[in-house]
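Supplementary Methods, section 5.1.

A reviewer requested that the exact input to the structure prediction be made available. We therefore reproduce it here, unchanged from the version used in the analyses.
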Amino acid sequence: MVNTTSAGQPGLYTPELESDACGTGLFVNLDNLASNAIVSRALKMLERMEHRGACGCEPESGDGAGITTHLPHAYYRKLASDGELPFFLPDPGSYGTGLFFMPKSAAAQRAIREEIETAAETLGFELVGFREVPTDATGLGPT
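The structure derived from this sequence is encoded token-by-token as follows.
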């Protein structure tokens, strides 16, 4: 999504949508350099956090806790050049992404996409497109 209004400020951060989270930590590189060391530290921190809202919910596949990283624009650019993105890819730093777990029903998926489109428009975002992400459910637990 590309934010076109955000209270007159450029960018994707929308302070009024900010919410609290239980059990968070933060690692950053103040020089704005991508680094696998930061990812490694963040994963170690995540392993050590005893209190997370759903800790231990699903032993086979985890509780959904994770880390947030920068958008992999080079990867998205490769997908676009391979024809795997059904939409135009904006410039780096001018878009964000979302991940939605959709039901199997095509009709239900259409209804959810319409809701997402409406929400994006209401918030002043331009929806660039959708793509189906390849999945592998072999390691998932029963729930």
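Residues 66 and 78 are 25 Å apart (CA to CA). These observations are discussed further in the main text.
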